[in-house]
Structure prediction request, 181 residues.
Amino acid sequence: MALWGNNDNVDSTGTIVSVNYDTGEVIGSGTTFGDATVGSAKTGDVIRFGYRDADPASSAVYFGDAVIVGIASTTVLTIGSTAGLSRASIANTSFTVSECPVYTVLDSHYSETNTDYDSFVYGIGRTGTEAAAGTQFETGVGWVGITTYNDNEGNLRVKKEILVAMSGIATGNVPAFPDQK
Prediction:
């Protein structure tokens, strides 16, 4: 199992999953977990539960991330820990799969919900850096931790930390960079 890959948009066929917090089992509906013919979720990938919407008025809920440690079938997988997830019940929830650095799942800066700031790890390719050029979201390519917050005067502030600099990264998951909250 690699520490990271180059794909922030692993094919995540199926629309909903449910998590059993006691066993770490994730059950999907219409999913293709472990199916190498479609390049879907595999052991070592990060599964992200819920939908991180750029619209603060949205009712979308983001539950957090977990590392996939086993795949029993195309509809059942196991996560290694629920430490990066909120304790809210995850049932019939949307999901995405990423090859982001697995160590970010247990980094409380990226996994805990905070009302004062928003932090997320994005896979940013050349197109993303070109779109953000000259803006406060400007950064390099690779796996980048982005933290946004409003300062005391209400100004949007953006902190960027390149976690893994790399070219050839494939992006496309939601939320799309630089459209974060």
The radius of gyration is 16 Å.
